[in-house]
Design a protein that fits this description.
The protein is an alpha/beta fold. It has three domains: 80 residues, Winged helix-like DNA-binding domain superfamily/Winged helix DNA-binding domain (Arc Repressor Mutant, subunit A, Orthogonal Bundle), CATH 1.10.10.10; 102 residues, Periplasmic binding protein-like II (D-Maltodextrin-Binding Protein, domain 2), CATH 3.40.190.10; 92 residues, 3-Layer(aba) Sandwich (D-Maltodextrin-Binding Protein, domain 2). The strands form two sheets. Strands 3, 4, 5, 6, 7, 8, 9, 10 and 11 form a nine-stranded mixed sheet that branches. Helix 1 crosses helix 2. The longest helix is centred in the first third of the chain and has 25 residues.
Length: 289
């Protein structure tokens, strides 16, 4: 009996091809790594060809995988356009969306690409800033909605109360670097009122670990640069850790860090149809983790 290409399998395959890392692809499509691996075995059984090479550094495509990727991207685009057209869900207008830099690096390309394929008449404007600055933009109605962090998944002003996923905070440093062993611990942290600044300092104080603030900036690029230089330890959400940096743990003398909740905040209690549609898109593709 012949088998058909399943849209969900193709979507997961494209996520793997684009990220090159099973963990990141799993986060993108809202599945566990084991479930994603099962999907790929099923897809390889359907095409009767190996599609992926699994290496210590990630995943690469076979020649057959490269050919399928071209077809899969086209099929997904046409599928999403057809579904939106049948549903009569074509929207138009300008949507102003904002999120922190680390969420932008991991989630934004996939979110924007998927929404644009469903609603090609929508113009998306994006601003990246720390969560406290995002709430200021919302209060001024400078953006329509924002993906923000909340401590422990708690509700906050303007937040819809639904935690879409949880993101563990982790200590990050240069691979094989010595910064974590220094006393006091040199830190490079985000804006002073951001959770990824406040929570690490609270954890160190509770553990009695001495530290000094070597660098403070809302720039993700600047923070990552400090970690790569070996001059400081930084704090990121786990999904945003670059492959060339190392997650530091209790073995490096550092206390455990909590997770933050990821949720949506709006500039008004009754969002427009366009804003509500994008919010639903975000909730669908950033499931609880």
């Amino acid at each position: 009996m012949s088998q058909s290409l399943d849209i969900d399998l193709l979507r997961s395959f494209v996520a793997i091809a684009e990220t090159g890392v099973l963990g990141k692809a799993a986060a993108r499509v809202g599945r566990t790594q084991s479930a994603l691996s099962m999907q790929m075995r099923k897809l390889e059984a359907i095409v009767e060809q190996p599609l992926l090479y699994r290496t210590g550094r990630g995943v690469t495509l076979t020649a057959t995988g490269e050919r399928l990727l071209l077809r899969a991207a086209e099929l997904l685009r046409k599928h999403d356009e057809a579904l939106a057209d049948v549903r009569g869900a074509q929207l138009s207008g300008v949507l102003r969306f904002s999120c922190p830099d680390d969420y932008a690096v991991v989630f934004l390309p996939y979110l924007l690409q998927g929404f644009a394929s469903l609603h090609p008449g929508v113009q998306l404007e994006v601003i990246c800033a720390p969560t406290p600055r995002l709430h200021e933009l919302l209060a001024r109605h400078a953006v329509d909605l924002a993906l923000v962090s909340v401590a422990g998944g708690a509700e906050g002003d303007g937040v819809d109360g639904e935690v879409i996923r949880h993101e563990p905070l982790v200590w990050v440093g240069q691979r094989g670097g010595a910064a974590a062993a220094l006393n006091p611990l040199p830190l490079a942290l985000a804006s002073p009122d951001a959770l990824d600044h406040v929570l690490p300092r609270q954890a160190l104080q509770a553990a009695g670990r001495a530290y000094r603030l070597a660098y403070a900036s809302s720039s993700l690029t600047g923070l990552v640069g400090m970690a790569r230089s070996g001059q400081a330890v930084i704090v990121l959400t786990r999904t945003a850790v670059p492959d060339d940096l190392q997650i530091l743990t209790a073995e490096h003398g550092l206390p455990a860090l909590p997770s933050v909740g990821v949720t949506l905040a709006f500039d008004r209690k009754a969002p427009t149809a366009l804003t509500a549609a994008f919010a639903a898109h975000v909730r669908k593709f950033l499931p609880l983790a």
